[in-house]
Write a structure and sequence with these properties.
single chain; about 200 residues; mainly alpha; about 70% helix
Length: about 200
């Protein structure tokens, strides 16, 4: 849905449409000099044009290769996931006495009830189609479906359903699905940069 524009926004849009791609600093400078306004006001106009759907802004700092994307701020969620899983693994392996046993219970419960489903939701819906509350609810629901399936598969293996095999299976599943989500998010971002149009 397109919104109505003020006269200043219309003039700025005409100026910005002349060039296909331009950096925000340069665009704000051009708009400020042509419309005889401050650079801050020009930047606000550009922001409003973007919010109203008349301009597409793409972050050019986003990495072109997957290896640099993997180490960028865009993949911070994955590193938080890895850190959480590492912390949970350490507490399950080494903590067995009170009062830290309660930390083990809390971290372990989240690993069982939330993390596998959250990783799968990130892989299935890598862009922002779902609201945060929907993601949270679906993450819990999927975790409640995934964990029994992993247990059923482990039941027919030589390892059986014991603490270590269940822990390792949940860790491997969550990391593998999370990495798949990371790849899918990168592919979507790369497509946005190629097309010049964000999918959000």
């Amino acid at each position: 849905m397109k919104y109505e524009l003020s006269k200043g926004e219309e003039k700025a849009l005409k100026l910005l449409k002349i060039k296909e791609e331009i950096e925000i600093e340069e665009a704000a400078g051009n708009v400020a000099s042509r419309l005889n306004i401050t650079v801050e006001n020009a930047a606000k106009i550009i922001y409003l044009l973007w919010k109203k759907g008349y301009l597409d802004l793409v972050d050019e700092r986003v990495s072109k290769s997957f290896s640099s994307y993997f180490l960028s701020w865009e993949s911070l969620w994955y590193w938080i996931l890895v850190s959480y899983i590492a912390l949970t693994s350490l507490t399950v392996a080494f903590v067995s006495k009170s009062p830290l046993i309660y930390l083990r219970y809390i971290l372990g419960s989240a690993l069982v009830l939330y993390i596998p489903g959250a990783a799968l939701i990130e892989a299935l819906y890598p862009s922002s189609e779902l609201e945060p509350l929907e993601r949270f609810a679906l993450s819990i629901g999927l975790s409640l479906a995934i964990v029994p399936l992993i247990g059923l598969i482990l039941n027919y293996t030589p390892w059986g359903i014991r603490l270590e095999p269940v822990l390792y299976s949940l860790i491997l599943f969550s990391l593998a699905v999370g990495f798949t989500a990371l790849i899918r998010k990168y592919m979507i971002l790369k497509g946005e940069l190629a097309n010049g149009t964000p999918s959000r």
